[in-house]
């Protein structure tokens, strides 16, 4: 039976980690595995990297707990932080670290009857993203208040997040680093400051001065560029010295003869200008492939690119093979991930980011790990 498949290369993953270690030899690595490791399967990714990286980053408490239950030993950081009193108990039970980004969290920690010095935390500074974290004018007092919480450990890690690191011409990133450094320099109790972290994928690849103690590769860990597809030499992960970890693929279900002038698919939005052969491919928006992909977006079949025609359906897409094609049922179809068809190229065709393309893939697509 033909089925959408997410093929994940472990050797490519390890290559990328090695590349980050070369780029930032004095930094530790926090591998970001939120959103099921960008659809690469967080459990397997974390298992393969447990002895290779220094931390894992997750968005949700449940993600961290699941990693502990499968035996992951490395420190795990809850990037969104906790919200409820009961979640702090879970953090301690499963030895998870948490980001502290608002006063409400500090207030909860002050009144918890828990062992002193038991919780690892990351103080988040809002250096310009204006999403989570303490504003610079609030940060000093908030840090002091956090220091007064008995439940936390002596060493308090400090982190922030760039908002424009993917724009190498923007001055905002430099301004954010200045704000970050000013906070570190003026902290009320410098002896309490632990690890520093501000660089995610864009910062790692374009702003080496930002690397600090811990770098946090997310999409770049999986061999995908965080930069615009229009950015010279940075459009794809391969151009940055990375290897794509995912190949998204399926198979031809059947090949049909199609006559000149005939329309096809939902809404009959595509009409053949010549008689041709069409492949019906086991792939659709039920697998996470974008329904609103632009006309003529390519797929890769038998060493060539051929265009999608008509509207993407839940379970199938149609591809114009050409009038003299010899492709047949069962032949492999690559939607993205090989050298000729990187996911960044499909993102440009879809009007979406590569982040969205990867993380929208559904459980119906089968994960398969190679090498």
From TrEMBL:
<dbReference type="GO" id="GO:0030632">
    <property type="term" value="P:D-alanine biosynthetic process"/>
</dbReference>
<dbReference type="GO" id="GO:0005829">
    <property type="term" value="C:cytosol"/>
</dbReference>
<comment type="function">
    <text>Catalyzes the interconversion of L-alanine and D-alanine. May also act on other amino acids.</text>
</comment>
<dbReference type="InterPro" id="IPR009006">
    <property type="entry name" value="Ala_racemase/Decarboxylase_C"/>
</dbReference>
<keyword id="KW-0663">Pyridoxal phosphate</keyword>
<feature type="domain" description="Alanine racemase C-terminal">
    <location>
        <begin position="245"/>
        <end position="370"/>
    </location>
</feature>
<comment type="similarity">
    <text>Belongs to the alanine racemase family.</text>
</comment>
<feature type="active site" description="Proton acceptor; specific for L-alanine">
    <location>
        <position position="266"/>
    </location>
</feature>
<feature type="active site" description="Proton acceptor; specific for D-alanine">
    <location>
        <position position="34"/>
    </location>
</feature>
<feature type="binding site">
    <location>
        <position position="131"/>
    </location>
    <ligand>
        <name>substrate</name>
    </ligand>
</feature>
<dbReference type="InterPro" id="IPR011079">
    <property type="entry name" value="Ala_racemase_C"/>
</dbReference>
<dbReference type="Pfam" id="PF00842">
    <property type="entry name" value="Ala_racemase_C"/>
</dbReference>
<dbReference type="InterPro" id="IPR029066">
    <property type="entry name" value="PLP-binding_barrel"/>
</dbReference>
<dbReference type="GO" id="GO:0030170">
    <property type="term" value="F:pyridoxal phosphate binding"/>
</dbReference>
<dbReference type="InterPro" id="IPR001608">
    <property type="entry name" value="Ala_racemase_N"/>
</dbReference>
<keyword id="KW-0413">Isomerase</keyword>
<feature type="modified residue" description="N6-(pyridoxal phosphate)lysine">
    <location>
        <position position="34"/>
    </location>
</feature>
<dbReference type="GO" id="GO:0008784">
    <property type="term" value="F:alanine racemase activity"/>
</dbReference>
<dbReference type="Pfam" id="PF01168">
    <property type="entry name" value="Ala_racemase_N"/>
</dbReference>
<comment type="pathway">
    <text>Amino-acid biosynthesis; D-alanine biosynthesis; D-alanine from L-alanine: step 1/1.</text>
</comment>
<protein>
    <recommendedName>
        <fullName>Alanine racemase</fullName>
        <ecNumber>5.1.1.1</ecNumber>
    </recommendedName>
</protein>
<feature type="binding site">
    <location>
        <position position="314"/>
    </location>
    <ligand>
        <name>substrate</name>
    </ligand>
</feature>
<dbReference type="InterPro" id="IPR000821">
    <property type="entry name" value="Ala_racemase"/>
</dbReference>
């Amino acid at each position: 039976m033909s089925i959408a498949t997410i093929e994940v290369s472990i050797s490519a993953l390890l290559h990328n980690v090695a590349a980050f270690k070369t780029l930032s030899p004095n930094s530790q690595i926090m591998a970001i595995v939120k959103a099921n490791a960008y659809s690469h399967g967080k459990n397997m990714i974390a298992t393969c990297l447990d002895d290779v990286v220094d931390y894992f980053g997750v968005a949700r408490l449940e993600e961290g707990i699941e990693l502990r239950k499968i035996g992951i030993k490395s420190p795990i950081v809850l990037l969104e932080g906790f919200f409820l009193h009961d979640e702090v108990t879970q953090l301690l039970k499963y030895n998870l670290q948490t980001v502290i980004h608002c006063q409400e969290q500090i207030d909860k920690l002050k009144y918890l009857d828990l062992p002193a010095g038991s919780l690892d935390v990351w103080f988040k500074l809002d250096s310009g993203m204006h999403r989570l974290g303490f504003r610079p004018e609030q940060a000093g007092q908030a840090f002091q208040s956090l220091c007064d919480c008995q439940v936390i450990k002596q060493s308090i890690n400090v982190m922030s997040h760039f908002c424009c690191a993917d724009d190498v011409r923007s001055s905002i990133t430099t301004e954010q680093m200045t704000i970050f450094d000013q906070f570190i320099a003026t902290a009320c109790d410098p002896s309490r400051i632990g690890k520093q972290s501000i660089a995610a994928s864009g910062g790692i690849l374009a702003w080496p001065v930002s690397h600090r103690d811990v770098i946090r590769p997310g999409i770049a860990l999986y061999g995908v560029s965080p930069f615009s597809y229009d950015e010279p030499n940075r459009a794809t992960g391969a151009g940055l010295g990375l290897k794509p970890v995912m190949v998204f693929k399926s198979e031809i279900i059947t090949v049909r003869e199609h006559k000149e002038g005939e329309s096809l698919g939902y809404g009959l939005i595509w009409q053949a200008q010549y008689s041709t052969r069409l492949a019906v491919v086991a792939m659709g928006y039920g697998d996470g492939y974008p329904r609103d992909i632009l006309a003529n977006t390519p797929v890769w079949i038998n060493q060539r690119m051929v265009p999608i025609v008509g509207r993407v359906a839940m379970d199938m897409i149609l591809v114009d093979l050409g009038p003299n094609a010899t492709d047949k049922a069962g032949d492999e179809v690559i939607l993205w991930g090989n050298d000729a068809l990187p996911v960044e190229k499909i993102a440009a065709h879809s009007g979406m980011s590569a982040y969205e393309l990867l993380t929208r893939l559904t459980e119906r697509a089968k994960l398969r790990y190679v090498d």
